[in-house]
Fold these 2 entries.
Entry 1:
Amino acid sequence: MAMLKVVEIGNQVLSLVAQPVGEVTKEHKLLANDLVETMYGTPGSVGIAAPQVGVSVSLFVLDVSGHKKTNTCHGLIVLFNPEVISASNPVVIREGCMSVPHLTGDVRRASEVVVRGLGIDGKVITIESDAFEARGLLHEIDHLAGKLFIDRIDGPHALYKRKRYL
Amino acid sequence: MPRFVLTAIGPDSYGIVARVTSALAELNCNLADSTMSNLSGHFAMILVVDASSNVDEKSIYETVQSRCSELSLLVDVKRIDDHVENDLDGDRFVVSVYGTDRPGIVAGICDVLAVHHANIYDLTTRVIDTESTSFYTMVLEVALKDSGDLAKLEDALLLKSSELGVSCSIRSSDSDEL
């Protein structure tokens, strides 16, 4: 396993629609492991998508365990080819992103979601979640569609400067 | 009741808003509208002020300057029409633009909006410095009188943003009635 370098806004890979995987290969599992290490090794990070390390593959990892805004929690989630089955009850929360240093923004996202994809073992899994985990799932799935939180910002006064990423 | 616009900008420090508004309060001026923000370390204020008939541009300017003499503020006061059309009609949309900083991003995008009669209500820009470059972000709220024009506007924005080498997206500005 290895910590991977996180690419920042301006890198074209963040604007691409990530490639779905046909099946989960050994290489995909190694990439997933590296994403997990990068996530856990970055203070404040609760999730990371493959395009954020420069790889346009439809994969993200997420773990919101212990976060104060977490309600439902599935622990470590590794998901390939995720799709949103349902999303409801939108709320506005300020969020940031490792790939967008120095900015945060108020973003309206569903607080209740059902998401389906392939797990690390290649089997289909369905995740029903809410609150902060739902937000994390939607934020990471946006990365796989080539979207950043700036594309979801709630308005001109919803974009804020910050000194650094956590 | 005469209406004035006061602009003031100077190096940010404690007490700018308090001093300026206290000076206006001394003259019994009423703040009708305002926007204030820290712009790259300079605090900028634009205030629309209603005053009594014995107050003029000179008295506002001199009172503000005398109360803020050590703040190095650039102050300007002008009389403005007290009745102008404030048309808030139209469907609202939020436009997000971001890309490597270069001259002409705001002009290029806003020219497309103007051509398509998208009225800008609000606009914020931010420059962020990444490891390799400066990055420009702009978020606008616009109103379209005829939302049937949205598809044409979206196509034109994508074409212009491609020319400028920036990302651009537009979406409805939803609000929930409670």
Note: The mean pLDDT of chain A is 94.
Entry 2:
Amino acid sequence: MKYAIIVYETVDDFAAREDQRAPEYWNGYSAYSGALQAAGVAAGGAALRASDAATTVRLRGGSRQVVDGPYSDIKEQLGGFFLIDVPTLDDALAWAVKCPAAKTGAIEVRPLLEMSQG
Amino acid sequence: MEPDQDTGSHFKSGALAERVARESYGRLLALLCARTRDVAAAEDALSEAFAAALTAWPRGGAPDNPEAWLFAAAKRKLIDAARRTRTASAGEAEIVRGIEEFVADMAEVNVPDRRLGLMFACAHPAIEESVRTPLMLQTILGFSAERIASAFLVEPTAMGQRLVRAKKKIKDAGIGFEVPEPAAWGGRFPAVLNAIYAAFASGWSDPMGADPERQGLTEEAVWLGRVLAQQLPQEPEVLGLLSLMLHLDARRVARRGSDGRYVPLDEQDTSLWRRELIVEAEQLLYAASKIGRPGRFQLEAAIQSAHATRAWRGETDWAAIALLYQALAELTASPVAQLNAAAAIARRDGPEAGLAATEAIAADNPMLRDYQPYWALIADLAAKLGRTEAARAAYDEAMARESDAAVIAFLAARQKSL
């Protein structure tokens, strides 16, 4: 089954991308990503810029409403996601807990909706 | 695989048929959904197979291997259903492939037992905690949502919805049915044990069997415990859980007088305790202790074992019970275990020491002041110390927090005798 490993990071995690902790931060993620590749479970993913780079748009009554900021104003913000292909939820959870942000933020594990082939 | 036809003599006994059906239900369901993870579809197929058996067996005789017959029938229903629904996913091929892998297994005399994997799926932390025990009762024992709802004092529709949601979660989230390696059990294994014990406790809190829906729930929990012990004879906590349930079950009859009156443990007539259950419980606890990994259920079983010695020695080993409860309180950080330790200290060192210990625990755990047994203990110790007014007030507090009429009557009688 394919799962999304959805990474929610704290304000401090986002800060660590750019301050003196940056090497440690990025090494953590490249090691994680490398481990997924080496295990043959990696199926995609992306890192996202911090939520202050986000813009949210809605279409209401035919008119476009654009606002600055992320969709949801929660403490932990979406920092990126990995797609993995593993047999069960437990395998997915075992990978999710190894993600660096598991120690500080939260990781949501969500199965992908498998689309029909025809 | 066509079933052998014979006279079905081993099915003549209704009790045996019921027993086979009960054991078969969980075994077959576990097999049917192990690959597909679709519990609901497997349940539908299995109930159709049971219905088919009800018409086919009386006519042609029960097959030699009823489980294989039922599995073959359910498998056909499952494939038919998958073809009918033609889900958007590649589900059908997956289902057929999964089932065909098991057809090979069915050639063996014994149907492989995958109930443990099903129990692990039901007790997965991704499943809402309150539905784990009901889900296990339904999938392993085939209980209806109505029966479970009644036992857990929940509206049948609400329970039905929770069960449906849980099964959907298992399927959609891809919760595995494989039993993980012990190293990866983590919180799941205690969840399996807790779910079984919760079923036992639910039946236990209705000792008179006044509620027909809850009647037999303790028995079913013991049955689940036996299934688990059969599959994991090397897990001391499994043996501890079964030992604990058997020790308690041994005293079932003695818990109430012939008039329905509540009889506290140390006033029970030990001749009413079922010795064969106590002996079995002791053997299990001994086997568990030899493995050398203590745990919550072994400690609780050991406490019940210390109570059981009264049947032989005529007196209870309160010193051992106090120590065991203290160990349990340390392990589980449970204020209730601390309270029980205080009660045992009172028996060992006298009411003064017991009251001091009880009050110290309540000071650290204010929620105990809303717990009936706390007030009953305070009342009993105050009475023993001759503090009649304090005892009377504490009995009032205890009665206000109890719902079992027999226990309220017992407390009222104690209060009256002050």
Note: The CA atoms of residues 251 and 273 of chain B lie 5 Å apart.
